[in-house]
Each structure stands twice: as structure tokens, then as C-alpha cells.
């Protein structure tokens, strides 16, 4: 029996990969277990004296709906807004977990510098001056294209505009967005 050799070109491979991705995504959307309503025994007990506030997640610029539980003016917990027109009752892992990063004792609240293998708290002025001196040294020694400016999905339109202008004034076109990485 002779062997049948089939060669697949790059374009054909990409088409097949895209098609399989679409099939996988649509089969997930058709599943009844992807999103379901919470039952009463799954709901968390509210904190005493807390109130529920409908708002949007600020982790990125999508604007998924969340219901924040606020107690004495402090955001203590959050749930996904099931009736929100953008997120439709779902949430990404960054957004659903962001409250833990806000309230944790491990959150960095001040500039830190590693000195002799240990973290040392420094002032904001020290941090800004040291970083700016290092950046100017890099630009002087290696040119403006030795740096890369990476934007964030957290930035709004105006912030992105100024961020891009800063990179241009710095003298480089090396700018990208974290959503592409």
C-alpha cells in the first residue's frame, strides 16, 4: 500500500485552527452549565448592617456589572450582577478577585526598594527621583528606543492619549497595550 502524504499550508492551518476555536466557543455557549442562577443556599449571608450597591468593575475598561456589599462605607464583598447588559452574569478572574487585593494586608501601599536583600520603605520623592534618573541614564546611553511603554486596559481614552504623547515626547514609538500580550 502506498502512503498518502498530505501537506497543509500555513493559511489552511490557520483557517482550520480558527474554525476549531469557533466550534469550541459556540459549543460552550450552548451549554446550560456555563451560566446558571444561584440557589438560595449558595447565597452568602450578608454582613450585619450592610447594603448592596450596583456598580461596575474598574479592573479594565469593559465595565462588567457587579453588586458591591458595603458596610459602614467600606466595600467588603462583591457578587456578579446577573442582569447586567454587558457581562450577562459573568466575570473574569481579575475582576472577581480584585476585592481581595484591595483589602489584603499584603498590598503594597508605599514605595519599597530592595537594599542588601531586604525591602526598605522609601519616600515617594525618592522613588520618583531614582526612577527618573535611571530612565534618563538609559535614554542618554542607549537612545530613546531602548525603552518600551506598555499601556493598560485600566486606562481610559484620555489617559491612553497622554500615555502615547509621553512616549512620543520621550522619543520612541515603542508603545503597546497589555491586552495584546
From TrEMBL:
SMART domains listed in its UniProt record: Molybdop_Fe4S4
UniProtKB keywords: 4Fe-4S, Iron, Iron-sulfur, Metal-binding, Molybdenum, Oxidoreductase
InterPro entries: Mopterin_OxRdtase, Mopterin_OxRdtase_4Fe-4S_dom, MopterinOxRdtase_cofactor_BS, TAT_signal, TAT_signal_bac_arc
GO biological process: anaerobic respiration
PROSITE patterns: 4FE4S_MOW_BIS_MGD (PS51669), MOLYBDOPTERIN_PROK_1 (PS00551), TAT (PS51318)
Residue ranges of every copy of the 4Fe-4S Mo/W bis-MGD-type domain listed in the record: 50-106
Highest taxon of source: Bacteria
Main location: other
The protein's required cofactors: [4Fe-4S] cluster
GO CC aspect terms: cell envelope
Intracellular or extracellular location(s): Cell envelope
Pfam family, one: Molybdopterin
GO molecular function, one term: molybdenum ion binding
Entry similarity comment: Belongs to the prokaryotic molybdopterin-containing oxidoreductase family.
Protein's UniProt name: Formate dehydrogenase, chain A
Species of origin: Caminibacter mediatlanticus TB-2
NCBIfam families, per database record: TAT_signal_seq
